[in-house]
Amino acid sequence: MKKTDNILSHRFRNNSKGLFLTNRKMSLRAKETLKRLKEEINKGNIEQREHESCPLCFGKEAILIAEKDRYGIPCETVICKCCGLVFNDSFFDEVSLEVVYEEFYGDINFDGVAPEGSFFKRTRPDAYSWKRFAFIALKLDTILKELKTIFEIGCRDGCNLLPFYLAGKEVMGCDFDEEYLDVGRRRGLNLLRGGTDSLVASGRQADLIILSHVFEHFVDIDKSIADVRKMLTPRGYVYVEVPGLLNWNRKRSDFISEDGCKSSNNFLMYLQSVHNYCFDLEKVSSFFERNGFEMVIGDEWVRALFRKSDSTELTKGNYYNPNSAERILAYLQTVERDFRSPTTQLNRFARKLLQKALTT
Ligand SMILES: [Zn+2]
Fold first, then answer.
1. 309 and which of 64, 183, 294, 320 could share a cystine (Cβ 3.0–4.6 Å)?
2. How far away, in angstroms, is 316 Cα from ligand 1 center?
3. Check: CATH 3.30.300.30 for 128-244+279-318?
4. What is the spatial distance between Cα 159 and Cα 144, in angstroms, rounded to a whole number?
5. Radius of gyration of the chain measured on its C-alpha atoms
6. For residue 267, how far is its CA from the centre of ligand 1 (angstroms)?
7. What is the DSSP pairing of strand 91-92 with strand 74-80?
C-alpha cells in the first residue's frame, strides 16, 4: 500500500522502546522474552507482512500513524484513506504468527499468571465473564432459552462458557494452550485443542458463537466470518467483542467507564502487534453485514450481537467513505494532544515517581 506519514507524535516512532509503566510492571522473564522476540524480528526469523490493499474497501492508500506498539515491537498502524479502517500493516505472517503465540505471547501478555489463578480471577463474582454473559442474556431476552449449543473460538480456559454451561447449555470451545484448557475441562467444559478447524471437525453446529477478544487477531476477516457462518444453525447468533477504538481511546474530559471497561487517552497503550485491526462498531458491522449477517445490537466498547441473515451474498455495503479517514485521524490526534497536555504529563510524572518509590 502507498503510505503517507502522519505519525501521531514522536512517541509513536519505532525506537524499540516500550511504554515506561508497562515495562516497569513486567517480570524479568517477560522482559527477556520480549527482548528475544525483537531480536528474532530484527534478524528476519519472525516475519511481518504488509497488506496489498485495504482488507475492507480494497483501497491502496493509507495514512501511517504509528510505527510500534506498547511493548516497542515494530507495528505499523495505518488508516485507510478510502474507508477509514484502522489496521496493522506489519502483521505477522501465518508461520511466524504460530511461533509468536507458542513461544512469546503468553510470557509477555499474561506475565506470570498461573492457569488456575487466572481461572479463579476470571470467574469470581465481580469478574467480567458474568457481565459478558449478562450483556448477551439481556440483549437476547427470551431467545436465550431457545439457544442450546454455544461455541467459543479462542476460549483460553473457558471462563466465558462457564455461565452458559451452568445455565444448562451445551458448550464447546477451542484454543491452543493445553494448560489453560485443562483448567476448564476439570470444571466439565468441553474444550478442544486447536483453532476454528477443530470445532468444524466436530461436525456440530452452534446456536451462538462467541468471539471475545479474538476477532481483532484474525488476518483474513472475510474468511474467518465465512468459517463462523458455516458452523452456525440457520438462525444462529455471533457475539463479537473487541477493544473498540472509539470508547477505549478518549480525551480526559470525555472519559467513560462501564462494566469495568475504562477509557484512556494513551493510544500507544492500546496498540498491540498481535492485534491486526483497531475496530470501531461501524467497521465490525460492515465486515459482518457483507458476509451474511445483520446486527442486532452493539456499542462502541465494541460488544455486538449479529444474527445470521438470509442473504449469503456479499452486499459490499457502503463502507467506502473518504471522510471517515479524516474523521478518525482528527479524533486520534485530539486524544494524543490531550495525552501530551501538561495535566496528563504531570499525572504521569507523579505515577512514575510513585512506581519508582515503591520498587526501590
Ligand atoms: Zn479501506
1. 294
2. 12
3. no
4. 19
5. 20
6. 21
7. unpaired
Q: Name the E strands within 7-60.
A: 48-49
Q: Could you tell me the distance, in angstroms and rounded to a whole number, from the CA of residue 295 to the centre of ligand 1?
A: 21
For residue 350, how far is its CA from the centre of ligand 1 (angstroms)?
40
Separation of CA 70 and ligand 1 centre (Å):
24
Query: How far apart, in whole angstroms, are the C-alpha atoms of residue 144 and residue 140?
Result: 6
The pTM assigned to this predicted structure is 0.92
Query: How many whole angstroms from 47 Cα to the centroid of ligand 1?
Result: 24
Span of 23-37, 71-85, 178-192, 291-305 with lowest mean pLDDT? 23-37
Check if the beta carbon of residue 191 is closer than 8 Å to that of residue 184. Answer: yes
Place of cell 512514575: 352
Going from the Cα of 320 to the center of ligand 1, the distance in angstroms, rounded, reads: 7
**What are φ and ψ of residue 191, in 5° steps?**
-120, 125
Q: Please give the distance, rounded to the nearest whole angstrom, from the Cα atom of residue 297 to the centre of ligand 1.
A: 24
Going from N- to C-terminal start, the domains of the chain cover 1-112+321-360, 128-244+279-318
Q: In which element (H, E) is residue 130 found?
A: helix 128-140
> How many angstroms separate the alpha carbon of residue 172 from the centre of ligand 1?
35
Give dist(CA 162, CA 29) in Å, integer: 31
CA of 182 to the centre of ligand 1 (A): 41
Number of H helices, E strands in the chain: 16, 16
As a residue count, the chain comes to 360
Q: Measure 325 CA to ligand 1 centroid, in angstroms.
A: 9
Q: Each residue of 138-196: pLDDT tens digit?
A: 999 999 999 999 999 999 999 999 999 999 999 999 998 888 999 999 999 999 998 88
Nearest to 297 by CA among 84, 137, 145: 137
Q: What is the pLDDT of residues 69-92, one digit of tens each?
A: 999 999 999 999 999 999 999 999
How far is ligand 1, taken at its centre, from the CA of residue 54, in Å?
5
CB 252 within 8 A of CB 78: no
